Amino acid sequence: MAIVISGRELAAKKREYMKNEVVKLENKYGRKPHLAVILVGEDPGSVSYVKGKEKACMEIGIVNTTITKPVTITQEELLQIIQQLNSDPFVDGILVQLPLPKHINPTYVINSIRPDKDVDGFHPNNVASLYLKQPGIIPCTPKGILEVLDSANIEIEGKRACIIGRSNIVGLPVSKLLLDKNATISIAHSRTKNLAEVTREADILIAAVGKPLFVKKDMIKEGAVVIDVGVNRNPLTNKLCGDVDFDNVLDKVSYITKVPGGIGPMTITCLMENTIECFLKHMEDKND
Ligand code: GUN
User: Fold this and answer.
1) φ/ψ (deg, to 5) at 137
2) Rounded to whole angstroms, what are the CA distances from 149 to 86, 270, 280?
3) What is the rounded distance in angstroms from the CA atom of residue 206 to the CA atom of residue 227?
4) Which residues line ligand 1 (CB under 6 A)?
5) pLDDT digits (tens, 9 = 90+) for 9-21
6) Global pTM?
7) Structural domains of the chain sorted by starting position, each given as residue range(s) with its CATH number in brackets
8) Does residue 287 surpass a pLDDT of 90?
9) Predicted local confidence at residue 286, as pLDDT
10) Which residues are catalytic?
11) Ligand 1: which residue has its CA nearest to atom 8?
């Protein structure tokens, strides 16, 4: 019988814990952690993500400022806003919601965020820290995936893990985190030949490909752990769905996460953890 791991329940437990921590932090340091989020344009997916972040901040007691700008904002104007947030001693974390409009270069934007406020862990300094096993900020979705695996006591060492997708946000960093836990990794992508042959080798299969219901039974090893990172609309029903055809694979897996209620809530929870981490670093640096 497959076990469905609830990211929603795990996230709720962690948020309850953080809520208590934030009270203690405010007592100790005289202020709460503060996350600033910048949203450019009105892409429905992005608007919904940003709302989720606001709700989580409110739940936990993290101060949240959301700066909403029209899609016509220039790159220069956006960089100026980031500079102001970079130099504001009362802002601990800065997140620019992606994707950005075509006339704005996301690399310039990400690189302009102060690394110690980069709660996404996308700045080159933080990416380098991850690859060199130095302290830094770990991207939220990969961190959430590792926490989900840990919560179900899933052994990683010595296992074969396959990640479908090679993005900077999920595929590459989660591969590195699993490698550091001594899994043997394969990263599959759109040019992989005989994809099902590759994925069928995996004890742990992570789907981060962005294609609704892409992963079917024939791609899965009997008893595999399947983590679904996809957030898609089912083209037939228009309902939210993952990259994995949940009903199709369920009787073949040992553990699986669902969409919605799986990795999504954990991503936002890890963003809250990263904000608290940045806050603590700022408080410690102030006392040096
Ligand atoms: N858009 C989709 N996922 C993410 C994320 O993790 N961070 C940011 N900033 N934008 C995103």
Assistant:
1) -95, 130
2) 34, 14, 26
3) 5
4) 95-98, 120, 140-141, 169
5) 999 999 999 999 9
6) 0.97
7) 30-115 (3.40.50.10860), 140-264 (3.40.50.720)
8) no
9) 82
10) 53, 97, 120
11) 97
